[in-house]
What does this fold into?
Amino acid sequence: MERIKSMQYMPAGPLMNITVLAGKLDEVHLPHWICIDDNPTILDKFAVLHIDDCGDNVEKVSEVTSSHVKLCEPVFSLKMAILRFLGLSVEIYCNVLIYKTDTDFLTLHAYLIPRDPGRQQELDKRNVSYGYRVIRKSHPEKSLKMNDSFILTTDLNSAEIYPEELILRYENPNYIEVFIDNPDKKFKLQLTNENEHQPVWTCTIRPNDYPSTVHSQGEHFVDKHRAVLIARVSNIESILDELLDKKVITTQEAYDKILAIPDMREKLRKLYSGPLNAAGYEGKEVFYKILEEKEKYLIAELKNST
It folds into this structure.
């Protein structure tokens, strides 16, 4: 990023890693998230950054469309569309990402980022590793101006929102936190440009978007559905990897013993009788969160049947 900025460019599209196994391509179209509508002067500011073992270089593009830049007879390395921003007021297409934190009360983290699948993947992975749940909603339809400030509001008077504004930028995206104590109905979130009155994005958060996964008393979800989980969970190896990483399985020896069991159901029975039993409630909560990610359709079916 520092190198791109020193050349007075900004990222205009995701970093792509493309490999041609055989043959040769006549042209390639790389995606970008820049709005070029009604701004023809911006077209000659596009370029493509090449990154390889020898360093990096910038190449002019052959053509720019509303969603892609074209390179003719490309030679592949890591590539990304970039835009020379000097003196430009740039509008881009964006995504809003929402994550529910792992707390008794409802806390949401909302990010505003360029439409970059790599950045979204990075934020998804980071937040899921904290035990947060992804809430997928539609994204803003209109383009938004880089470095503008946006305010997030809700129609619930009891909601606490901090900070008051969010700046649209590529690097180190920050989030707005929405705190609601004991929500019991659907509510709206709206994003508005600080200098305008019309919202640029609206979504509805419904109760089924934030089901409680905290079991303060009684039988835990993973114990209640033990028989079904043993019979139907299929991603046991990756689940064991996660449990070892999160210290529910506390030793490599215990992990190796379960992994060596040939029968998948027996693996799960050993997991229940050993590490999960020893880890108690908190360990079962971690197991539940991993199942939500790895076996989401099975967990959804079991929750709906409760």
Summary: The CA atoms of residues 190 and 202 lie 4 Å apart. Residues 213-217 have pLDDT under 50 and may be disordered. The chain has three domains: 2-84, 93-209, 221-305.
